[in-house]
DUF3570 domain-containing protein
Amino acid sequence: MQLTKSKKISTLLATATCTLLNTGVQAQETKSVNDWQFDTAILYYGETDRVSLLEGVVSATKDFGDQHILNTKLVIDTLTGASATGAVSQPYAQTFSRPSGDGQYTTSPNELPLDDTFQDTRVQLSANWTQPIYQDTRINIGGNISSEYDYLSVGTSVSAERDFYNKNTTALFGLSYQFDSIDPVGGRPIALSSMVVNNGQFGAGEAGEDAFETAFNQTRITDTDDKSTVDALFGLTQVINRRMIVQLNYSYSNSSGYLNDPYKLLSVVNSNGETQSIVHENRPDSRVKHSIYAQTKYAFDDAVADVSYRFATDDWEIKSHTIDSKLRYNLTETDYIQPHIRYYQQSEADFYRPYLNDADVLPAVASADYRLGEMTAITVGLKYAHQMNNGHEWGVRAEYYQQDPKNAGFENIGVLASQELYPSVKAFILQFSYNF
């Protein structure tokens, strides 16, 4: 899963957003210089019949005065459940080898193939230091390390901010570098190699097990692989008047190296849509992304509206649009609610295929990962927060998320016409936060 691995530019974006749009400023104003500010949260994310995530976050910020600020963050999350493999469902049962090669699992007829042994634990630690270097100019230096069972990520970032026009305008430029080491369970699959399944052809007993293991190992590379990502961010934040503020960012990202998901598969079918073999995906070894992000906040007498739009494109031909809106409404001086609506739409990657045809030559790159296909998604939710007499604040956020993959013009041949190849993904999100 890449659910927790798509944060290449998060540090830079957080810096830009916090420049003048920090929603935690009011809480921090109750703290004196040299006090620690703690933000904690526990989040549950659960997909129907699929992946579940439980995440805990502790963020600590200390202002040493004169804009010398230290922020540290610890994130621990666990993922369990069933992950879609990319193989298509069939009107008959299908058997798959587990990624480790140790055992097999069988899916029922007309059932989307899911590997129900998916599980992982991630621990991430990050830190960021902010300080002025001369009048109205600050630098931010950060670093992070994240570890999973099969994944290690190390990164660093640096950015500079400068205020203009009585601090009504802030410009930001940032760079970050991320290095990831990948060591998949069972080894890295050879790109587009066929999955080896023990259907009795290797014989019985220990000799049969040894023969299967030999055949399985021939489709694997045991050495670790890596990828690197360089991100750049250009941002501008502008105070329009005492009620309105806007922000505009441009970001660039360049990734190279091992970009495959080692656990994703493709079905190779005949002219009747029946699966003849299962192969491991292969993606390009580089990816360049561009995105433009615009945000505005407007303060009413008893509410704050927050609306943003992001357009992103890359050389995989994925184009996406994201509209995000929140309205914080003050019920009293100590209580507020915040409805949230987010809409997302993307086109498919140029190498996305829901399946491959055995009459065609295998393409150089191909993936059936639905996250690379055409889709729309919507999130709706509500947050309630209360500030206590001691200045501490707690909040509860509940959201519903639905992702709807689309058919980007592929023909559902033969038996595939009766199968659900693009099922929706539905999830519930619940978060409890406490700031002190």
User: Anything to note?
Assistant: Helices lie at 10-20, 25-29, 205-217. The chain is about 5% helix and 55% strand. Residues 205-217 form the longest helix (13 residues). The chain has a mean pLDDT of 91.
